Amino acid sequence: INAEYGIHPSENMADQFHWPPLESDPQVFADFATKLGLTNYSTGEVFSFDPDMLAFLPFAEPPKAVIACVRRMPEHKDTDKTRGDAATEVDFYMDQTGKLDNACGVIALVHSILNVPDMILADGSPLGQFREENKETTPEQRARSLEEFTAIHELYKETAAEGNEGNQDGVHVHKDEEGNEVEKTFHFIAYVRNGKGQLVELDGTKAGPWVIAEGVSEQDFMAAVGAEYNRRIAEGEIDQAGAVMALGKKAPE
After folding, report:
1. N or C: lower Cβ tally within 10 Å for the chain?
2. pTM greater than the 0.85 cutoff
3. What is the pLDDT of residues 197-245, one digit of tens each?
4. In 3D, which of 96, 67, 104 has the Cα closest to residue 247?
5. Collapsed DSSP state (helix, strand, coil) of residue 152
6. CA 129 to mean position of chain CA atoms
7. How many CB atoms lie within 10 A of CB 115?
8. What b/e string do you get for 122-137 counting C-beta neighbours within 10 Å, with b at 16 or more?
């Protein structure tokens, strides 16, 4: 996402980011969520939206949120940012500002946790404090709050520094169809169901929460996310070289 705010890679780019990139690794996100205060949910990598493959996710119940790491194709990026409506019903939505340069990972995680009532935060936890302080604020005010929210920022920087040697500048190198190495920047977004049973995409760079589908049940949630994710790839909106993780209730040990 660095290129979206006019930031260009360099050898020391990791030191220049206020919010360095997070690695798209379910364990990294699970550990970070725990540090933020999440007690009863964890993450699992989604290799396929096929029901037989989803059955292998390590959860006690069907997932309640999805975080996708996508590369928006340049020719679709501007249109994508116009989508969404601030009036869409969700429990929590925040913007992503320029100062939150590579914070799309934590924003996607915050959007996931704070829009699923079943996700329990420990008393006095960093994310619990952030939620309390921003119950009545606007999406832009929430972004400004996160910019200076030291308890979350320090944990975030620690997490971003772990196991992320190949992504310190927010750029991944992939090979194209001809075998040439191509640099690509990626962006984290979240999917949840709202109180109306709508599938909603939450992305702080959009105009607001974006309703994807109506009448989505808990059991149909993953199929609905998969249909949207695959549609965007098929229609050339996002690169097929993405990654997906789900958040679900921890299974008994």
Report:
1. C
2. yes
3. 999 999 999 999 999 999 999 999 999 999 999 999 999 999 998 999 9
4. 67
5. helix
6. 20
7. 23
8. eeebbbbbbbeebeee
